[in-house]
Amino acid sequence: MLVIAWQYLTGRCVATDFTDRELAEWPPHPDRVFQALVASWGERGEDSEERKALQWLEQLAPPQLVAPDPVDQPKPVKVYVPVNDLESKQKKY
User: Fold this and answer.
1) How many angstroms separate the first and last alpha carbons of the chain?
2) Per the confidence metrics, is the pTM higher than 0.85?
3) Other CB atoms within 10 A of residue 46 CB
4) Most-buried pick from 30, 44, 67, 89 (CB within 10 A)?
5) What is the DSSP letter of 82?
6) pLDDT in single tens digits along all 93 residues of the chain
7) What's the number of CA atoms in the CB half-sphere (13 Å) around residue 4?
8) Are 32 and 49 within 8 A, CB to CB?
């Protein structure tokens, strides 16, 4: 049996359920965890032995998840990203 446990460095995760953006993703999707492992591998120098471990991990059967019930979830915060292409319209080329 392989067990993976993690702790969020900020004490929280910022991930929404792909079926409802108003809900938090809980438990984290296994692919999100795998992507984090791959990103860490890449940022740490792409060690060939670690690559073999990741390739072994991706060949395993789908995981069983055991996670505690989610804690009280705050209401989602709406985030707006300003349009930044107005400046380019003003430039004359």
Assistant:
1) 62
2) no
3) 10
4) 30
5) -
6) 788 888 888 877 778 888 888 888 888 888 988 999 999 999 999 999 999 999 999 999 988 888 888 777 777 777 787 777 666 655 555
7) 14
8) no
